[in-house]
Amino acid sequence: MDRFDIFQGIKRGEGGKMLLFVLDGVGGLPQKPGGKTELETANTPNLDALAAEAVCGLHHPCAPGITPGSGPGHLGIFGYEPFKYNIGRGVLEALGIDFPLQDGDLAIRVNFCTLDANGLVADRRAGRISTEVNQGLCEKLRQIDLDGVEVFVEPVKEHRAAIVMRGEGLHGGQNDSDPQETGKPPLEIRAAGPEGEKAAALCNEFAAQAREILADEQPANMVLLRGIDRFDPLPEFTEIFGPKAAAVAAYPMYRGLSRLVGMEILSTGETEPEEVDTVAEHLDAFDFFFLHMKKPDSLGEDGDFDAKVQKIEMIDGLLPRLRELGFRVIAVTGDHSTPSTMKSHSWHPVPTLLWSEVCRPDEVTSYGERACNHGGLGIFPAIDLVPQMLANGGWLQKYGA
Fold it and tell me: How many other CB atoms are there within 10 angstroms of residue 86's CB atom?
């Protein structure tokens, strides 16, 4: 029996309101052996108070030792097996900007980057150019013509854009052209198998034309193509689990992830307090809220330990208002760890707390990596988080006789 089939027989169709509060990349590492992580360093009285009333633990987004991308990381905490539903980031970017993807479209995430005089990547994000600059560059790239497919080039945010190719016989599974470090040239895109060769050739031709068009631009004089994948719809969250679900996320890709699983996307502002306002404004209309805050991850990738600490402290200050909204269940976690010392996602399990009036509190009294390691949830697969939220929220019946 498929795992999702189990919920068809035990979901109630009604229950209490639930909040999945995701601090992107919240997990970290100490700056030196024996020190504290960013989360442990931060002054978080509200998260600590909630942890003291909750049951805590750590989750593996995919599996032990596997470093997840944002797609698998979020699908895991939404309850979707990330190795079964492996969605390329290009699809998520396109959905996140409300692009009307059609079955069989090939979607690609773009990073505008800076190449030096030798053709080596000097900055993988082109200094995080503004969205306004991005829009102008996308307009220039729309002159690219590829044989046999329709090409769409759309700005996303800052240095990120999306490409969609529409035509027959397009399949994903190619490598990224991003070498993931500076001082190296963009990689040639290769297919994993014969069915992907057509798309690989089109992507390489797109990159070649883009290099010519952007040659005189600074700092964004090239593109890196990432997350190449074909769009195929997924089973919807509400149909599987029961609660009517909504997503509040300022960054487009996370709206795309939410739309991919059928959540309703709520329009929100750019700041974290505005996101909380959006949850409050729509509280009566939905049963399950996914609330996403991006900056802990971005600051971790920038290697800025102190700024990540400060951002976590700022987010902690928003928790009292969220608690006042009367959720029956609150889960706080991340989609992965992003240690500032590594400047990247990592495989380290992610601190998690699960609060409800009927949870079984443990001895943990603070929200941090070491503390959660001793919690009652233990170290568990991310796909088990939503079912535990549903149970605590009264959404599940007994299984079996």
Answer: 16
Element (H, E) at 265: strand 264-265
What is the C-alpha to C-alpha distance for residues 136 and 8, in angstroms, rounded to an integer?
48
**Spatial distance between the Cα atoms of 31 and 112, rounded to a whole number of angstroms:** 30
Residue 50 φ/ψ, nearest 5 degrees: -65, -40
- Encode 53-74 in three state secondary structure: HCEEEEEECCCCCCCCCHHHHH
What is the model's pLDDT at position 64? 97
Q: Which tens digit of pLDDT belongs to each residue from 89-137?
A: 899 889 888 899 999 999 999 999 999 999 999 999 999 999 999 999 9
Nearest alpha-carbon partner for 315 in 297, 337, 288, 328: 297
Count CB neighbours of 214 within 10 A: 20
Q: CA–CA distance from 308 to each of 23, 99, 120, 295, 389 (Å)?
A: 11, 32, 30, 8, 28
Q: Would the CA dihedral through 293, 296, 302, 306 be positive or negative?
A: positive
The structure's pTM equals: 0.84
Q: What are the distances in angstroms from CA 76 to CA 4, 371, 376?
A: 13, 22, 20
Rounded CA-CA distance 385/390 in Å is 9
Domains along the sequence of the chain with CATH: 3-86+234-392 (3.40.720.10), 92-230 (no CATH)
Beta strands in 140-244 (DSSP E): 150-157, 160-166, 222-230
